[in-house]
Amino acid sequence: MTAESTVATPAGQQPPSRDSGSVLGPRGLGAGRRAPAGRGARRPRRVFGACLGIVDGGAALLGALVVPAPHRYPLVFALLALGVIGLNRRASLYDTSVVPGALDELPAVCGRIAVGWAAVVALSPLRSLPTAVLVVAVAVHGAAACAGRAAVHGGRRRVVRRRPCPALVVGPVAAARRVAAALLRQPGCGVRPVGVIADDVEVLGDIDDEPGLPVLTTAQDARRALIQNGVEAVLVVGAATRVEKAAVLRGLAAYGCVLWELDADSPWYGLGGRREGAGHLAGFSRRLLWPRSGRRRGSAGKRALDVVLSGSLLVLAGPVLLVCAVVLRVMDGPGVVFRQERIGKDGRPFTMLKLRTHRPASAHEAATRWSVANEQDMSRFCHFLRRTSLDELLQLWNVFRGDMSLVGPRPERPYFVAKFSQAHPGYPARHRMRTGMTGLAQIHGLRGDTSIEDRCRYDNAYIDNWSLWQDVCILLRTAAQFVRPTGS
């Protein structure tokens, strides 16, 4: 689909009302401005997760330096580092949705380091080393890992105090507002409620005039609040709410939110054994209800394919892009690169790049007008770029940096994401995976001004049946169709 070509919105489809529900504006933004959802917290969260992996790898290197030089086998210690990182990953020790204290994870970290060393000593020439040397090496490895992870967690804790995670509170209005007010009184907890989802209408009439967070009573309001505020967490007040709001919670989880259940009335005092993700948030008992969709099996292979192919194609296509840019600059003036906000994985916005083939009359028009393949006022060269899809090649940079994938659902603008999510129940589920330059829908002819319902069905079928081989097949079929004059 081409972004900047504009015609009137399809007949019979009204834009979503802006007055159907209010949402709390992000801090520091003036009225009418939209917050870049998720950029305030999700990107640093990924950085801190990577830092934890680097710390664990560096700690393994320090432990290896204790071993006498004749016994420093690089391959053995590389396997040790990878093994410990793998064990930590399985134990969710790189999950940065919660920030543990320095001592909280010490037993888990040191235990896995000990297991890693025991395995490499048993299976390598290190078993000939004196026991004292091995003990010192394990101790240095453990101390370095714990100290480094404590420093990373400390940095993460400072970040969440400055930029707390936006959250929605789901439950009866009175209880949800009480929980939200308590969290707002504790900014150090790292969570900032931005709205309450409830439908107990008989209560709403009594508290509508009370100051506080907006009450969202429809799925459309919830989606708008989620996208506009970059919501990352959903706090479910009470077990009854978990059942009553199951459909709404599934939809929020499809956007990549982490779901936590809070007990606002009867705190959990540790009875019944330890529960997964159990803990507290501003004193409220909390347990993990539905984690973020996380990395799908094989996603590391998909990302590797994206990086290798997009990097190679950027090098090969560089001269072509340069020539196209020069021609566009000479024929149509400055502004060769077209930038537009699109919605990607888990509802996160990103800036998509293309070669400009049409100038929208205004930013509002570019964001809210549907696109077609052939605009009457485009030059012949711009028509050529559209027909050959050369204007899309700049998206290889989006793929290389991780905003997109080579294969996946095509990204859409925030206005149309809200609109199509309301009209098509399965549309939000497309955001379970990174958006792509091409996809199953595109190779079946669903490009440009075609059925959104059909695209949605193909996109979800692709995600549900994903495999690396399927990506390869779609890329090969896309390459075969690349020169067809269909546009995008």
UniProtKB/TrEMBL annotation:
Spans traversing the lipid bilayer: 47-66, 132-152, 304-328
Compositionally biased region (Polar residues): 1-20
Membrane topology designation: Multi-pass membrane protein
GO molecular function: phosphotransferase activity, for other substituted phosphate groups
Ranges where the Bacterial sugar transferase domain occurs: 302-483
Keywords: Membrane, Transferase, Transmembrane, Transmembrane helix
InterPro entries: Bact_transf (IPR003362), EPS_sugar_tfrase (IPR017475)
Principal location class: membrane
Membrane as UniProt keyword: yes
Signal sequence coordinates: none
Pfam families referenced in this protein's UniProt entry, alphabetically: Bac_transf
Subcellular location: Membrane
KW Acetylation (keyword) present: no
GO cellular component: membrane
Disordered: annotated segments: 1-41
UniProt record similarity statement: Belongs to the bacterial sugar transferase family.
Full protein name: Transferase
